């Protein structure tokens, strides 16, 4: 009598699949699908049913391999055709997602919503968009929860309205070109004033004068309806307008500057008294290399000057401005700022450093053995 050699199976059948479940008339029906194919089928990206279904079989429990009874299929769906029932479950059923996969989807959608919010909003003070990390932090502070059944754009608009209640943030304006017949141009300008729109330029030559303006997105539909009634034409030049040009650091509060350079401030008190007189020479050389002017803004000249609010002085171009933050003069004034002392000029700072070093040397003599 021959015996068949049975090899062990290391894989559990019908576990590494995507399960779509549908409850109907108190009964549960499931089908086994390939991973990442159900959403492709529902978005009409995948049209081959065999690429979606593992088998044209309806189960009552996929993980245990329990098939659905024929009488239950007829009672719930009115037919025992497995393929038609699979199609209905595929369209109307609920996709069972694992915990990590669901968390990954939520994280991805949360990032998409934050990106849309960043593109559609600006800081009212600087007229520039917030960073994506700051938007995500603000969304966490208002305890925003992602709704997987709602679109990212719709949720982003809800987030913007909620953020406006607690933080300085507003919708970035749209830039439009409005063209109307000459007899209706005056009516259009009056409406723009009512909407508090910013007029960028006007072209009143010809029979079809036009105006380029920036307005809040909330008034776009009303503006579009008005232009249509005036037999005009509306063109969208930019969906979101941000401030252009280089950022001026002095637009921000002094707190931001002290926060950015907090690490350098903490290291200054322990380092200054212990360095040798070579530091004084290096300090003087760095100060001579920098182009520093007094507080008079008229002395800026052709080169664009950057003001350091900590040292209360104007520094040269962007490169010199960055080098200034690394200088001992700036670090010494940061140390004084933490002690609520007024800033020193370059010469006063050099003298102050020399005094501190002489005091440290005298202290060392007192404790010398």
Write up this protein:
With 369 residues, the chain is of the alpha+beta class. Helix content is 43%, strand content 16%. It has 14 helices and 14 strands. It has helices spanning 38-42, 70-77, 82-92, 99-120, 132-141, 152-163, 185-194, 220-229, 254-260, 262-271, 278-289, 318-326, 328-338, 346-366, and strands spanning 18-24, 27-33, 59-61, 66-67, 94-96, 121-122, 170-171, 174-179, 198-203, 210-215, 233-238, 292-293, 306-308, 313-315. The strands form 5 sheets. Strands 9-10-8-11 form a 4-stranded antiparallel sheet, with helices on one face. It has a 3-stranded antiparallel sheet with strand order 2-1-5. It has a 3-stranded antiparallel sheet with strand order 12-14-13. A hairpin with a 4-residue loop joins strand 3 (59-61) and strand 4. Helix 4 (99-120) crosses helix 5 and helix 11 runs antiparallel to helix 14 (346-366). It is flat, with a radius of gyration of 35 Å. The chain starts with 17 loop residues before the first strand and ends with a helix. The model is unreliable at 249-276 and 290-302 (pLDDT under 50).
Quick overview:
The chain is of the alpha+beta class and 369 residues long. It is 43% helix and 16% strand.
Helix residue percentage: 40-55%
Low-confidence stretches: 249-276, 290-302
Oligomer: single chain
Spatial extent as radius of gyration: 35 Å
**How many strand segments?**
14
What is the mean predicted local confidence, pLDDT?
Answer: 77
Biggest sheet record: 4 strands, antiparallel
Topology pattern, helix = H, strand = E: EEHEEHHEHEHHEEHEEHEHHHEEEHHH
Main-sheet strand order equals 9-10-8-11
The amount of beta strand, in percent, is 15-25%
Task: Name the structural class.
Answer: alpha+beta
Q: What gap, in angstroms, lies between the N and C termini? A: 102 Å
Q: State the shape.
A: flat
């Amino acid at each position: 009598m021959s015996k068949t050699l049975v090899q062990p199976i290391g894989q559990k059948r019908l576990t590494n699949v995507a399960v779509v479940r549908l409850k109907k008339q108190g009964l549960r029906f499931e089908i086994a699908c390939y991973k990442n194919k159900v959403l492709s089928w529902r978005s009409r990206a995948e049209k081959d049913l065999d690429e979606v279904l593992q088998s044209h079989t309806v189960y009552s429990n996929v993980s245990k391999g329990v098939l659905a009874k024929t009488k239950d299929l007829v009672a719930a769906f009115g037919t025992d055709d497995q393929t038609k029932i699979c199609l209905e479950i595929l369209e109307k059923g609920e996709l069972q997602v694992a915990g990590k996969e669901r968390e990954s989807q939520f994280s991805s959608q949360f990032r998409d919503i934050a990106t849309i919010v960043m593109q559609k909003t600006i800081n009212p003070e600087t007229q520039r968009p917030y960073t994506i990390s700051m938007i995500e932090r603000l969304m966490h502070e208002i305890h925003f929860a992602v709704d997987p059944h709602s679109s990212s754009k719709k949720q982003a608009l809800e987030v913007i309205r909620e953020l406006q209640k607690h933080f300085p943030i507003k919708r970035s304006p749209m830039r439009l070109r409005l063209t109307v017949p000459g007899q209706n141009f005056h009516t259009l300008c009056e409406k723009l004033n009512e909407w508090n729109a910013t007029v960028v330029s006007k072209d009143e030559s010809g029979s079809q004068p036009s105006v380029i303006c920036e307005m809040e997105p909330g008034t776009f539909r009303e503006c579009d309806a008005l232009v249509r009634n005036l037999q005009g034409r509306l063109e969208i030049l930019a969906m979101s307008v941000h401030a252009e040009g280089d950022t001026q650091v002095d637009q921000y509060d002094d707190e931001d500057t002290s926060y950015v350079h907090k690490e350098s401030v903490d290291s200054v008190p322990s380092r200054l008294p212990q360095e040798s007189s070579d530091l004084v020479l290096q300090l003087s050389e760095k100060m001579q290399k920098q182009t520093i002017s007094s507080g008079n803004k008229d002395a800026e000249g052709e080169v664009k000057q950057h003001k350091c609010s900590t040292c209360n002085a104007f520094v040269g171009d962007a490169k010199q401005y960055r080098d200034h933050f690394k200088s001992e003069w700036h670090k010494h004034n940061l140390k004084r700022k933490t002690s609520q002392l007024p800033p020193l000029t370059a010469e006063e700072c050099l003298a102050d450093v020399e005094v501190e070093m002489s005091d440290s040397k005298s202290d060392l003599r007192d404790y010398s053995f």
